Amino acid sequence: MKFSSNTKQIALLIDPDKITESGLLEVITTSVGAQVDLFLVGSSLLMRNSVERTIDLIKKNCSIPVYLFPGNVLQICKNADGILLLSLISGRNPELLIGQHVIAAPSLKEANLDIISTGYILIESGKQTSVEYMSNTRPIPSNKTDIAVCTALAGEQLGLQSIYLEAGSGACNPVPEEMIAEIRKTIKIPIWVGGGIRTPEDATKACKAGANIVVVGTAFENNKSLINPICKAIHQFNR
Ligand code: 1GP
Questions:
Q1: C-beta of 176 in contact with ligand 1 (< 6 A)
Q2: Contact between 76 and 104 (Cβ < 8 Å)
Q3: Which residue from 16, 49, 145, 179 has the highest number of Cβ atoms inside 10 Å of its Cβ?
Q4: pLDDT tens-digit map of 58-106
Q5: How far is ligand 1, taken at its centre, from the CA of residue 215, in Å?
Q6: Contact at 8 Å (CB) between 194 and 13?
């Protein structure tokens, strides 16, 4: 995957548990029309492991790249184009900083995926989210911009390729714009922003503050007609 500091991209997150086959086909058709840049596939917790099947269906029906966004090592599969290899650097859970990566390393090497090493930073967003509970880590308080900035900077200094600012799926409040803006001023690597983005206005605010890739999942699960206007809001920055 190519990042450019001058362009804004949209990543559409698909939780395989939350979509039917016909729903996914509809999302694919709409996404092609709206020029979605990337699909992410994964979840904090899956009741049935249909990641591989979901990716197969996407690959058969369009050429939009598909990257894994795995909640755990069980969600790694070979048929994706790449993976966001997340290290949860806002937390102090060694398993999610390095432990699970060691376990996944041989299968990742064999799968030959495009690996984007990413510092995953959870930001407090109004209520406890699945990712907070499942990761057994505490998010950075939303008013502690300095902690978030130093965490992102440490991730960049460690050589990570990107930073993901995560409010959590279905978050009450997205990551604050001031926090995104301060991090943007401090680091050079691309910034993903996701969690609780529901409207074109939310997406515009994240882009203006400095997000390179805006990630949206829940809003599209609830209302597929939002795909077009949210994509437009993000891509207008590229004109
Ligand atoms: C979750 O950041 C993503 O990991 C997307 O969040 O589902 O709230 O859009 P939403």
A1: no
A2: yes
A3: 179
A4: 999 999 999 999 999 999 999 999 999 999 999 999 999 999 999 999 9
A5: 6
A6: yes
Identity at 3, one-letter amino acid code: F
Q: What is the pLDDT of residue 225?
A: 98
Distances (CA, A) of 71 to 15, 49, 76, 90, 152: 10, 12, 9, 16, 20
The pLDDT score that the predictor gives to residue 8 is 98
- Residue of 38, 202, 216 best suited for mutating to test ligand 1, as the one with most atoms within 8 Å of CB: 216
* pLDDT, position 1: 75
Distance of alpha carbon 69 from alpha carbon 38, whole angstroms: 12
**pLDDT for 49:** 82
Residue spans of the chain under pLDDT 70: none
Strand partners, 122: 166
Single out the residue of 164, 115, 159, 156 nearest to residue 1, CA to CA. 115
The token pair that represents 112 in the structure block: 């030959």
Between the CA of 15 and the centroid of ligand 1 the distance, in Å, is: 10
Q: Is 166 in the pocket of ligand 1 (CB under 6 A)?
A: yes
